[in-house]
Amino acid sequence: MAKLNLYNEQRFDVRPRMFGSFLEHMGTVIYTGIYEPGHPSATPEGFRGDVLQLVRDLGVKTLRYPGGNYTSSYHWEDTIGDKTTRPKRMNIAWQSLETNQFGLDEFFQWIQQAKVDNPILTVNLGTRGIDDALHELEYVNGKYDTDWANLRRQNGHAAPYGVKYWCLGNELDGPWQVASKTPEEYGLLANETAKAMKLMDPDIETILVGSSTPRLDTYPSWDFKVLMAAYDNVDYIAMHDYIDRDQSENLDQESLRASDDLPTYLARSLEFDKQIEEVETIADAVKALKHSDKTMKISFDEWNVHHFSQKKSQPWSEHNPVDWCYFNLADTLLFGSMALAILRHGDRVKLSCQALLVNTIPLILTDEGGNAWANPTYYVLQSILRNLSGTSSVVKTAMVDGKRYSTERYQNVSSVDQVVMDTGSAFVVFAVNRENESQTFSIDFPNVIKDGHMEHIVGKLEDMNTREHPETLTLQSCETTINSGSSSQNVTLSGYSWNVVTFNY
Ligand code: AHR
Protein backbone atom coordinates (compact mmCIF):
# COMPACT_ATOMS: atom_id res chain seq x y z
CA MET A 1 0.00 0.00 0.00
CA ALA A 2 1.14 3.58 -0.61
CA LYS A 3 2.49 5.39 2.44
CA LEU A 4 2.41 9.12 3.17
CA ASN A 5 5.57 9.94 5.12
CA LEU A 6 5.33 12.91 7.48
CA TYR A 7 8.46 14.94 8.31
CA ASN A 8 7.11 16.38 11.52
CA GLU A 9 10.13 18.57 12.28
CA GLN A 10 9.98 20.23 8.85
CA ARG A 11 7.08 22.63 9.03
CA PHE A 12 6.16 26.29 8.62
CA ASP A 13 3.33 28.48 9.92
CA VAL A 14 0.36 29.39 7.76
CA ARG A 15 -2.17 32.06 8.72
CA PRO A 16 -5.80 32.80 7.68
CA ARG A 17 -4.70 35.90 5.74
CA MET A 18 -2.76 33.65 3.37
CA PHE A 19 -5.85 32.65 1.32
CA GLY A 20 -7.73 35.73 0.17
CA SER A 21 -9.91 36.75 -2.73
CA PHE A 22 -10.34 39.70 -5.04
CA LEU A 23 -12.99 42.33 -5.85
CA GLU A 24 -12.54 44.30 -9.05
CA HIS A 25 -14.67 46.91 -10.84
CA MET A 26 -15.10 44.43 -13.67
CA GLY A 27 -18.16 42.74 -15.15
CA THR A 28 -20.83 42.25 -12.50
CA VAL A 29 -18.44 41.80 -9.57
CA ILE A 30 -19.43 45.05 -7.85
CA TYR A 31 -22.70 46.19 -9.42
CA THR A 32 -25.36 43.45 -9.00
CA GLY A 33 -22.63 41.26 -7.45
CA ILE A 34 -21.99 42.77 -4.03
CA TYR A 35 -23.85 46.08 -4.50
CA GLU A 36 -27.47 46.20 -5.62
CA PRO A 37 -29.61 48.71 -3.68
CA GLY A 38 -32.89 47.41 -5.18
CA HIS A 39 -32.24 43.77 -4.29
CA PRO A 40 -34.69 42.14 -1.80
CA SER A 41 -31.78 41.27 0.52
CA ALA A 42 -30.12 44.73 0.31
CA THR A 43 -28.75 46.32 3.49
CA PRO A 44 -29.42 50.06 4.10
CA GLU A 45 -26.07 50.71 2.35
CA GLY A 46 -27.27 48.82 -0.76
CA PHE A 47 -25.06 45.75 -0.18
CA ARG A 48 -26.52 42.38 -1.16
CA GLY A 49 -27.28 40.59 2.12
CA ASP A 50 -27.36 37.15 0.51
CA VAL A 51 -23.82 37.65 -0.85
CA LEU A 52 -22.55 39.04 2.46
CA GLN A 53 -23.80 35.88 4.19
CA LEU A 54 -22.02 33.63 1.68
CA VAL A 55 -18.80 35.63 2.12
CA ARG A 56 -19.00 35.39 5.92
CA ASP A 57 -19.61 31.63 5.63
CA LEU A 58 -16.58 31.33 3.34
CA GLY A 59 -14.41 32.80 6.10
CA VAL A 60 -12.14 34.79 3.79
CA LYS A 61 -10.04 37.39 5.67
CA THR A 62 -8.02 39.04 2.86
CA LEU A 63 -9.46 40.98 -0.10
CA ARG A 64 -7.69 42.83 -2.87
CA TYR A 65 -9.51 45.89 -4.34
CA PRO A 66 -10.36 47.65 -6.72
CA GLY A 67 -8.41 45.86 -9.49
CA GLY A 68 -6.87 44.46 -11.58
CA ASN A 69 -6.65 46.02 -14.98
CA TYR A 70 -9.26 48.56 -13.84
CA THR A 71 -6.74 50.28 -11.57
CA SER A 72 -4.32 51.26 -14.35
CA SER A 73 -6.56 54.13 -15.45
CA TYR A 74 -8.86 54.80 -12.49
CA HIS A 75 -9.08 57.92 -10.34
CA TRP A 76 -9.65 56.90 -6.74
CA GLU A 77 -10.94 60.35 -5.76
CA ASP A 78 -13.93 59.93 -8.15
CA THR A 79 -15.18 57.24 -5.79
CA ILE A 80 -15.52 59.21 -2.53
CA GLY A 81 -17.91 61.78 -1.03
CA ASP A 82 -21.51 62.62 -1.93
CA LYS A 83 -22.80 59.87 -4.23
CA THR A 84 -25.01 62.26 -6.18
CA THR A 85 -22.05 64.29 -7.40
CA ARG A 86 -19.62 61.45 -8.17
CA PRO A 87 -18.60 61.49 -11.85
CA LYS A 88 -19.66 58.74 -14.20
CA ARG A 89 -16.66 57.47 -16.18
CA MET A 90 -15.72 55.08 -18.97
CA ASN A 91 -14.05 51.96 -17.50
CA ILE A 92 -11.71 51.48 -20.46
CA ALA A 93 -10.15 48.32 -19.07
CA TRP A 94 -13.48 46.45 -19.24
CA GLN A 95 -15.62 48.51 -21.65
CA SER A 96 -18.30 49.47 -19.17
CA LEU A 97 -19.79 52.60 -17.65
CA GLU A 98 -18.60 53.22 -14.10
CA THR A 99 -21.09 55.09 -11.92
CA ASN A 100 -18.76 55.23 -8.89
CA GLN A 101 -21.71 54.53 -6.58
CA PHE A 102 -19.53 51.95 -4.85
CA GLY A 103 -16.13 53.36 -3.94
CA LEU A 104 -13.36 53.38 -1.40
CA ASP A 105 -15.43 54.20 1.71
CA GLU A 106 -18.18 51.75 0.69
CA PHE A 107 -15.49 49.07 0.30
CA PHE A 108 -14.39 49.59 3.92
CA GLN A 109 -18.01 49.47 5.12
CA TRP A 110 -18.58 46.32 3.09
CA ILE A 111 -15.51 44.44 4.37
CA GLN A 112 -16.52 45.24 7.93
CA GLN A 113 -19.90 43.59 7.33
CA ALA A 114 -18.24 40.69 5.47
CA LYS A 115 -15.84 40.15 8.43
CA VAL A 116 -12.79 40.66 6.22
CA ASP A 117 -10.01 42.34 8.20
CA ASN A 118 -7.12 42.39 5.77
CA PRO A 119 -7.67 44.64 2.72
CA ILE A 120 -5.05 45.00 -0.04
CA LEU A 121 -5.37 48.18 -2.11
CA THR A 122 -3.90 48.65 -5.58
CA VAL A 123 -2.73 52.12 -6.61
CA ASN A 124 -2.73 53.36 -10.20
CA LEU A 125 0.82 53.24 -11.55
CA GLY A 126 -0.44 53.03 -15.14
CA THR A 127 -1.75 56.47 -16.08
CA ARG A 128 -0.78 58.00 -12.71
CA GLY A 129 2.17 58.00 -10.33
CA ILE A 130 3.74 58.92 -7.00
CA ASP A 131 1.57 61.93 -6.08
CA ASP A 132 -1.66 60.07 -6.68
CA ALA A 133 -0.50 57.08 -4.62
CA LEU A 134 0.51 59.41 -1.77
CA HIS A 135 -2.83 61.22 -1.81
CA GLU A 136 -4.73 57.93 -1.69
CA LEU A 137 -2.54 56.65 1.14
CA GLU A 138 -3.08 59.87 3.08
CA TYR A 139 -6.87 59.64 2.59
CA VAL A 140 -6.93 55.99 3.71
CA ASN A 141 -4.35 55.88 6.51
CA GLY A 142 -3.67 59.54 7.37
CA LYS A 143 -3.82 60.33 11.09
CA TYR A 144 -2.72 63.97 11.13
CA ASP A 145 -4.55 67.25 10.53
CA THR A 146 -3.88 67.26 6.77
CA ASP A 147 -6.02 67.88 3.73
CA TRP A 148 -6.73 64.35 2.43
CA ALA A 149 -7.09 62.85 5.91
CA ASN A 150 -9.52 65.66 6.77
CA LEU A 151 -11.53 64.93 3.63
CA ARG A 152 -11.96 61.34 4.87
CA ARG A 153 -13.15 62.71 8.23
CA GLN A 154 -15.51 65.12 6.44
CA ASN A 155 -16.89 62.12 4.53
CA GLY A 156 -17.85 60.56 7.87
CA HIS A 157 -14.87 58.29 8.57
CA ALA A 158 -12.98 59.70 11.55
CA ALA A 159 -10.58 56.82 12.14
CA PRO A 160 -7.83 55.97 9.65
CA TYR A 161 -8.50 52.65 7.90
CA GLY A 162 -4.96 51.41 8.61
CA VAL A 163 -4.47 49.46 5.37
CA LYS A 164 -1.22 47.54 5.56
CA TYR A 165 -0.85 45.98 2.09
CA TRP A 166 -0.45 48.11 -1.06
CA CYS A 167 0.01 46.80 -4.61
CA LEU A 168 2.25 49.07 -6.67
CA GLY A 169 0.04 48.88 -9.76
CA ASN A 170 -1.17 45.83 -11.67
CA GLU A 171 0.21 43.69 -14.52
CA LEU A 172 2.19 46.55 -16.06
CA ASP A 173 4.22 44.03 -18.10
CA GLY A 174 1.07 43.04 -20.06
CA PRO A 175 0.54 44.56 -23.52
CA TRP A 176 -3.21 44.62 -22.70
CA GLN A 177 -2.63 46.91 -19.73
CA VAL A 178 -3.53 50.61 -20.02
CA ALA A 179 -0.14 52.37 -19.84
CA SER A 180 1.99 49.21 -19.73
CA LYS A 181 5.69 49.80 -19.09
CA THR A 182 9.13 48.39 -19.72
CA PRO A 183 10.71 46.76 -16.64
CA GLU A 184 13.16 49.66 -16.46
CA GLU A 185 10.35 52.25 -16.44
CA TYR A 186 8.24 50.30 -13.99
CA GLY A 187 11.12 49.34 -11.68
CA LEU A 188 12.11 52.97 -11.25
CA LEU A 189 8.54 54.18 -10.71
CA ALA A 190 7.67 51.37 -8.30
CA ASN A 191 10.82 51.89 -6.26
CA GLU A 192 10.28 55.63 -5.89
CA THR A 193 6.56 55.19 -5.16
CA ALA A 194 7.21 52.56 -2.49
CA LYS A 195 9.92 54.73 -0.94
CA ALA A 196 7.65 57.79 -0.78
CA MET A 197 4.68 55.77 0.54
CA LYS A 198 6.83 54.29 3.31
CA LEU A 199 8.09 57.76 4.26
CA MET A 200 4.44 58.73 4.71
CA ASP A 201 3.46 55.52 6.53
CA PRO A 202 6.27 53.23 7.72
CA ASP A 203 3.78 50.54 8.80
CA ILE A 204 2.72 49.61 5.27
CA GLU A 205 4.05 46.73 3.16
CA THR A 206 4.35 47.08 -0.61
CA ILE A 207 3.77 44.54 -3.37
CA LEU A 208 5.77 44.81 -6.59
CA VAL A 209 4.21 43.82 -9.94
CA GLY A 210 5.75 40.51 -11.05
CA SER A 211 5.05 38.79 -14.37
CA SER A 212 1.34 38.61 -15.24
CA THR A 213 1.73 35.06 -16.48
CA PRO A 214 4.59 32.66 -17.15
CA ARG A 215 3.20 32.46 -20.70
CA LEU A 216 4.64 35.92 -21.56
CA ASP A 217 8.09 35.72 -23.10
CA THR A 218 9.28 38.46 -20.72
CA TYR A 219 8.83 35.95 -17.85
CA PRO A 220 10.90 35.74 -15.63
CA SER A 221 13.35 38.43 -16.75
CA TRP A 222 10.72 41.07 -15.89
CA ASP A 223 10.74 39.80 -12.28
CA PHE A 224 14.53 39.91 -12.11
CA LYS A 225 14.76 43.44 -13.51
CA VAL A 226 12.04 44.99 -11.37
CA LEU A 227 13.37 43.30 -8.22
CA MET A 228 16.84 44.63 -9.00
CA ALA A 229 15.34 48.13 -9.22
CA ALA A 230 13.08 48.04 -6.16
CA TYR A 231 14.27 45.26 -3.81
CA ASP A 232 14.97 47.47 -0.79
CA ASN A 233 11.61 49.24 -0.79
CA VAL A 234 9.24 46.35 -1.43
CA ASP A 235 8.15 43.44 0.72
CA TYR A 236 6.45 41.14 -1.81
CA ILE A 237 6.74 40.23 -5.46
CA ALA A 238 3.32 39.57 -7.04
CA MET A 239 2.51 36.45 -9.05
CA HIS A 240 -0.55 35.97 -11.28
CA ASP A 241 -1.74 32.96 -13.24
CA TYR A 242 -4.97 31.55 -14.67
CA ILE A 243 -5.30 28.11 -16.25
CA ASP A 244 -7.71 27.22 -19.04
CA ARG A 245 -8.50 23.68 -20.15
CA ASP A 246 -7.10 24.25 -23.63
CA GLN A 247 -4.29 26.66 -22.82
CA SER A 248 -1.04 26.59 -24.79
CA GLU A 249 2.36 27.08 -23.18
CA ASN A 250 2.91 30.49 -24.73
CA LEU A 251 0.54 33.40 -25.33
CA ASP A 252 1.46 33.44 -29.03
CA GLN A 253 0.51 29.79 -29.65
CA GLU A 254 -2.82 28.30 -30.76
CA SER A 255 -4.93 26.62 -28.07
CA LEU A 256 -4.31 22.93 -27.49
CA ARG A 257 -7.81 21.56 -26.95
CA ALA A 258 -7.20 18.41 -28.99
CA SER A 259 -4.27 17.25 -26.88
CA ASP A 260 -5.31 18.64 -23.50
CA ASP A 261 -6.93 15.51 -22.06
CA LEU A 262 -8.27 15.19 -18.51
CA PRO A 263 -5.11 13.67 -16.92
CA THR A 264 -3.12 16.54 -18.44
CA TYR A 265 -5.63 19.13 -17.23
CA LEU A 266 -5.62 17.77 -13.68
CA ALA A 267 -1.80 17.87 -13.63
CA ARG A 268 -1.60 21.51 -14.66
CA SER A 269 -1.26 22.66 -11.04
CA LEU A 270 2.37 21.49 -11.43
CA GLU A 271 2.83 24.73 -13.36
CA PHE A 272 1.95 26.63 -10.15
CA ASP A 273 4.59 24.70 -8.18
CA LYS A 274 7.13 25.43 -10.92
CA GLN A 275 6.24 29.10 -11.23
CA ILE A 276 6.44 29.68 -7.45
CA GLU A 277 9.83 27.94 -7.28
CA GLU A 278 11.15 29.93 -10.25
CA VAL A 279 10.06 33.25 -8.74
CA GLU A 280 11.67 32.23 -5.42
CA THR A 281 14.91 31.46 -7.28
CA ILE A 282 14.89 34.80 -9.09
CA ALA A 283 14.15 36.69 -5.85
CA ASP A 284 16.92 34.85 -4.00
CA ALA A 285 19.39 35.62 -6.79
CA VAL A 286 18.58 39.32 -6.42
CA LYS A 287 18.92 39.00 -2.63
CA ALA A 288 22.43 37.55 -3.09
CA LEU A 289 23.43 40.10 -5.72
CA LYS A 290 22.35 42.91 -3.43
CA HIS A 291 23.98 41.37 -0.32
CA SER A 292 20.59 41.82 1.32
CA ASP A 293 19.39 40.21 4.55
CA LYS A 294 15.77 40.45 3.44
CA THR A 295 14.01 37.43 1.94
CA MET A 296 11.36 38.56 -0.55
CA LYS A 297 7.86 37.24 0.19
CA ILE A 298 5.44 36.26 -2.57
CA SER A 299 1.89 37.58 -3.01
CA PHE A 300 0.10 35.24 -5.45
CA ASP A 301 -2.61 37.86 -5.76
CA GLU A 302 -4.49 36.57 -8.82
CA TRP A 303 -5.04 32.87 -9.47
CA ASN A 304 -7.83 30.64 -10.67
CA VAL A 305 -9.03 28.18 -13.25
CA HIS A 306 -10.73 29.88 -16.18
CA HIS A 307 -13.78 28.78 -18.16
CA PHE A 308 -15.86 29.97 -21.09
CA SER A 309 -18.53 32.56 -20.29
CA GLN A 310 -22.24 31.79 -19.85
CA LYS A 311 -23.23 35.43 -20.46
CA LYS A 312 -22.74 37.63 -23.49
CA SER A 313 -20.73 40.81 -23.06
CA GLN A 314 -22.74 44.08 -23.40
CA PRO A 315 -20.03 46.70 -23.95
CA TRP A 316 -20.56 50.16 -22.44
CA SER A 317 -23.46 49.15 -20.25
CA GLU A 318 -23.37 49.96 -16.52
CA HIS A 319 -22.47 46.42 -15.56
CA ASN A 320 -21.21 44.77 -18.68
CA PRO A 321 -20.99 41.04 -17.94
CA VAL A 322 -17.45 39.76 -18.48
CA ASP A 323 -16.97 35.99 -18.25
CA TRP A 324 -19.52 34.78 -15.56
CA CYS A 325 -18.94 31.09 -15.57
CA TYR A 326 -19.78 27.82 -13.90
CA PHE A 327 -16.99 25.47 -12.83
CA ASN A 328 -17.47 21.70 -13.10
CA LEU A 329 -15.92 18.94 -10.97
CA ALA A 330 -12.82 18.66 -13.22
CA ASP A 331 -12.20 22.42 -12.82
CA THR A 332 -12.76 22.08 -9.08
CA LEU A 333 -10.17 19.32 -8.73
CA LEU A 334 -7.60 21.41 -10.60
CA PHE A 335 -8.54 24.42 -8.45
CA GLY A 336 -7.98 22.24 -5.35
CA SER A 337 -4.53 21.23 -6.59
CA MET A 338 -3.69 24.88 -7.36
CA ALA A 339 -4.65 25.81 -3.78
CA LEU A 340 -2.48 22.92 -2.50
CA ALA A 341 0.48 24.19 -4.57
CA ILE A 342 0.11 27.57 -2.83
CA LEU A 343 -0.29 25.97 0.60
CA ARG A 344 2.78 23.75 0.20
CA HIS A 345 4.81 26.88 -0.61
CA GLY A 346 3.38 28.83 2.33
CA ASP A 347 6.88 29.43 3.68
CA ARG A 348 7.27 32.03 0.89
CA VAL A 349 3.73 32.70 -0.42
CA LYS A 350 2.39 34.73 2.47
CA LEU A 351 -0.56 36.28 0.63
CA SER A 352 -2.74 34.94 -2.18
CA CYS A 353 -5.98 36.10 -3.78
CA GLN A 354 -8.25 33.78 -5.72
CA ALA A 355 -9.77 35.89 -8.53
CA LEU A 356 -12.62 36.82 -8.42
CA LEU A 357 -14.92 36.57 -5.39
CA VAL A 358 -18.30 37.29 -7.02
CA ASN A 359 -19.22 36.81 -10.73
CA THR A 360 -16.89 36.72 -13.80
CA ILE A 361 -14.68 33.72 -12.82
CA PRO A 362 -16.18 33.46 -9.38
CA LEU A 363 -16.60 31.64 -6.13
CA ILE A 364 -20.08 33.20 -5.78
CA LEU A 365 -22.57 33.73 -8.60
CA THR A 366 -25.47 36.19 -8.60
CA ASP A 367 -28.49 36.96 -10.74
CA GLU A 368 -29.62 40.59 -10.79
CA GLY A 369 -32.69 40.78 -8.55
CA GLY A 370 -32.42 37.02 -8.00
CA ASN A 371 -30.45 34.44 -6.09
CA ALA A 372 -26.83 34.06 -5.06
CA TRP A 373 -25.15 30.66 -4.93
CA ALA A 374 -21.68 29.13 -4.97
CA ASN A 375 -19.48 27.43 -7.52
CA PRO A 376 -17.95 24.19 -6.14
CA THR A 377 -14.55 25.93 -5.91
CA TYR A 378 -16.08 27.98 -3.04
CA TYR A 379 -16.28 24.82 -0.92
CA VAL A 380 -12.62 23.95 -1.60
CA LEU A 381 -11.46 27.34 -0.34
CA GLN A 382 -13.91 27.27 2.56
CA SER A 383 -12.54 23.90 3.72
CA ILE A 384 -8.97 25.25 3.74
CA LEU A 385 -9.92 28.52 5.46
CA ARG A 386 -11.79 26.63 8.21
CA ASN A 387 -8.52 24.96 9.19
CA LEU A 388 -6.31 28.04 9.13
CA SER A 389 -5.91 29.63 12.55
CA GLY A 390 -3.25 31.35 14.62
CA THR A 391 -1.63 27.95 15.31
CA SER A 392 -1.73 26.18 11.92
CA SER A 393 1.40 24.87 10.26
CA VAL A 394 2.08 22.85 7.14
CA VAL A 395 4.10 19.66 7.68
CA LYS A 396 6.33 18.41 4.87
CA THR A 397 5.32 15.06 3.36
CA ALA A 398 6.33 12.53 0.69
CA MET A 399 4.14 9.84 -0.87
CA VAL A 400 6.02 6.54 -1.15
CA ASP A 401 4.87 3.81 -3.58
CA GLY A 402 1.82 5.86 -4.61
CA LYS A 403 0.37 5.50 -8.10
CA ARG A 404 1.81 7.85 -10.75
CA TYR A 405 0.98 8.64 -14.37
CA SER A 406 2.53 10.42 -17.34
CA THR A 407 1.05 12.40 -20.23
CA GLU A 408 2.70 13.97 -23.28
CA ARG A 409 3.08 17.19 -21.31
CA TYR A 410 3.70 16.02 -17.71
CA GLN A 411 5.71 13.04 -16.46
CA ASN A 412 5.54 11.14 -13.19
CA VAL A 413 2.45 12.91 -11.85
CA SER A 414 1.28 11.71 -8.43
CA SER A 415 -2.29 10.39 -8.67
CA VAL A 416 -2.90 11.76 -5.19
CA ASP A 417 -2.04 15.41 -4.65
CA GLN A 418 -1.88 16.23 -0.93
CA VAL A 419 -0.83 18.63 1.82
CA VAL A 420 -0.93 17.91 5.58
CA MET A 421 -1.64 20.68 8.07
CA ASP A 422 -1.27 20.59 11.85
CA THR A 423 -3.86 22.91 13.43
CA GLY A 424 -2.50 22.51 16.96
CA SER A 425 -5.14 19.93 17.91
CA ALA A 426 -5.55 17.93 14.70
CA PHE A 427 -3.72 16.80 11.59
CA VAL A 428 -5.76 17.65 8.50
CA VAL A 429 -5.03 15.90 5.22
CA PHE A 430 -6.16 17.86 2.14
CA ALA A 431 -6.06 15.66 -0.95
CA VAL A 432 -7.14 15.54 -4.59
CA ASN A 433 -7.58 12.14 -6.24
CA ARG A 434 -6.69 12.77 -9.90
CA GLU A 435 -7.81 9.23 -10.88
CA ASN A 436 -11.12 7.52 -11.55
CA GLU A 437 -10.29 4.64 -9.14
CA SER A 438 -10.20 5.07 -5.37
CA GLN A 439 -6.74 5.39 -3.76
CA THR A 440 -5.67 4.22 -0.30
CA PHE A 441 -2.57 5.22 1.65
CA SER A 442 -1.33 4.85 5.23
CA ILE A 443 0.07 7.56 7.55
CA ASP A 444 1.98 7.27 10.84
CA PHE A 445 1.30 10.38 12.87
CA PRO A 446 3.67 11.57 15.63
CA ASN A 447 0.67 11.71 18.01
CA VAL A 448 -1.97 9.18 19.09
CA ILE A 449 -5.21 9.95 17.26
CA LYS A 450 -8.35 10.28 19.40
CA ASP A 451 -11.02 10.55 16.72
CA GLY A 452 -11.70 12.21 13.39
CA HIS A 453 -13.92 12.69 10.37
CA MET A 454 -13.78 13.10 6.61
CA GLU A 455 -15.51 15.36 4.08
CA HIS A 456 -15.27 15.30 0.31
CA ILE A 457 -16.57 16.75 -2.96
CA VAL A 458 -17.48 14.01 -5.44
CA GLY A 459 -19.75 13.72 -8.47
CA LYS A 460 -19.64 13.45 -12.23
CA LEU A 461 -16.79 15.33 -13.88
CA GLU A 462 -19.20 17.56 -15.80
CA ASP A 463 -21.43 18.36 -12.76
CA MET A 464 -21.84 22.06 -11.93
CA ASN A 465 -23.82 24.22 -9.48
CA THR A 466 -26.32 25.91 -11.78
CA ARG A 467 -29.05 28.40 -10.81
CA GLU A 468 -31.53 25.52 -11.19
CA HIS A 469 -29.40 23.06 -9.16
CA PRO A 470 -27.15 25.23 -6.98
CA GLU A 471 -25.98 22.50 -4.60
CA THR A 472 -24.97 19.65 -6.90
CA LEU A 473 -21.34 19.81 -5.74
CA THR A 474 -20.76 20.73 -2.10
CA LEU A 475 -18.60 19.42 0.71
CA GLN A 476 -20.26 16.25 2.11
CA SER A 477 -19.41 14.20 5.21
CA CYS A 478 -18.37 10.68 4.29
CA GLU A 479 -17.46 7.40 5.95
CA THR A 480 -13.90 6.86 7.10
CA THR A 481 -12.35 4.47 9.62
CA ILE A 482 -10.37 6.13 12.41
CA ASN A 483 -8.18 3.84 14.56
CA SER A 484 -8.88 5.56 17.87
CA GLY A 485 -5.94 5.31 20.27
CA SER A 486 -3.43 4.58 17.49
CA SER A 487 -1.02 6.78 15.57
CA SER A 488 -1.28 4.56 12.44
CA GLN A 489 -4.14 5.45 10.14
CA ASN A 490 -5.35 4.64 6.63
CA VAL A 491 -7.05 7.05 4.24
CA THR A 492 -9.18 6.03 1.24
CA LEU A 493 -10.11 8.66 -1.36
CA SER A 494 -13.01 8.17 -3.82
CA GLY A 495 -12.28 8.50 -7.53
CA TYR A 496 -12.04 12.10 -8.79
CA SER A 497 -12.51 13.82 -5.43
CA TRP A 498 -11.47 16.74 -3.21
CA ASN A 499 -10.95 15.50 0.37
CA VAL A 500 -10.47 16.92 3.85
CA VAL A 501 -9.63 14.27 6.47
CA THR A 502 -9.32 15.44 10.08
CA PHE A 503 -7.42 13.40 12.71
CA ASN A 504 -7.85 14.90 16.18
CA TYR A 505 -5.06 14.18 18.66
O1 AHR B 1 -8.97 38.98 -12.75
C1 AHR B 1 -9.30 39.58 -13.92
C2 AHR B 1 -8.16 40.30 -14.59
O2 AHR B 1 -7.16 39.38 -14.96
C3 AHR B 1 -7.45 41.35 -13.79
O3 AHR B 1 -8.02 42.60 -13.92
C4 AHR B 1 -6.08 41.37 -14.38
O4 AHR B 1 -5.12 41.80 -13.46
C5 AHR B 1 -5.89 39.99 -14.94
O5 AHR B 1 -5.37 40.03 -16.22
TrEMBL record:
It catalyses: Hydrolysis of terminal non-reducing alpha-L-arabinofuranoside residues in alpha-L-arabinosides. GO terms for molecular function: alpha-L-arabinofuranosidase activity. Keywords: Carbohydrate metabolism, Glycosidase, Hydrolase. The keyword Nucleus does not apply. InterPro entries: Alpha-L-AF_C, ASD1_cat, GH, Glyco_hydro_b. Homohexamer; trimer of dimers. This is non-reducing end alpha-L-arabinofuranosidase. It comes from Levilactobacillus suantsaiihabitans.
